[in-house]
């Protein structure tokens, strides 16, 4: 949802039967020539606020957002697989080990 000329906000829900539960909030913010992405699931442990990720790649089927200073993940990749299917990759190194978490979403 477009909040204003520079801000877009969204959220994910988990649907079980006829019930839905809000899972996560996200925001895309234009600041000057940059786009900054935040997702509530990746929060600073000290402040509790979402960690900002700079959008480094934008394509028709998704985008890549990166923050090399984040504990984990350092990269988030959103990729549309189909018009109603989205795949999200959380990638990075934590304690010298590379890890990738893949989440799949389907629009209902």
How is the topology of this model organized?
Blueprint: E1 2-4, E2 7-16, E3 19-31, E4 34-39, E5 53-59, E6 62-66, E7 75-82, E8 85-94, E9 97-106
Antiparallel strand pairs: 1-2, 2-3, 3-4, 4-5, 5-6, 6-7, 7-8, 8-9
Explained architecture:
- With 108 residues, this protein is mainly β.
- The chain has one domain (2-106): Porin, CATH 2.40.160.
- Helices cover 0% and strands 67% of the residues.
- It is built from no helices and nine strands.
- A nine-stranded antiparallel beta sheet has the order 1-2-3-4-5-6-7-8-9, with no helix packed on it.
- A hairpin with a 2-residue loop joins strand 3 (19-31) and strand 4.
- 10% of the residues are buried.
- The model has no long low-confidence stretch (mean pLDDT 90).
The CATH first-level class comes to Mainly Beta
Mean residue pLDDT: 90
In angstroms, what is the radius of gyration?
A: 14 Å
- By CATH, the topology is Porin
Q: Helix count, per DSSP?
A: 0
Poorly predicted spans: none
**Which CATH architecture would you pick?**
Beta Barrel
Q: What is the subunit arrangement here?
A: single chain
What portion of residues belong to β-strands? Answer: over 45%
Biggest sheet character: 9 strands, antiparallel
Overall geometry comes to globular
SSE order: EEEEEEEEE
Helix content: under 10%
Would you count the extended β strands for me?
9
């Amino acid at each position: 949802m477009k909040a204003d000329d520079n801000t877009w906000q969204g959220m994910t829900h988990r649907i079980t039967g006829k019930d839905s539960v809000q899972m996560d909030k996200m925001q895309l913010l234009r600041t000057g020539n940059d786009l900054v992405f935040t997702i509530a699931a990746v929060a600073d442990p000290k402040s509790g606020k979402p960690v900002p990720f700079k959008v480094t790649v934008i394509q028709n089927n998704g985008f890549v957002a990166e923050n090399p200073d984040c504990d984990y993940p350092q990269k988030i990749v959103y990729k549309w697989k189909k018009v109603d299917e989205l795949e999200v990759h959380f990638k990075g190194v934590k304690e010298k080990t590379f890890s990738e978490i893949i989440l799949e979403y389907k629009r209902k």
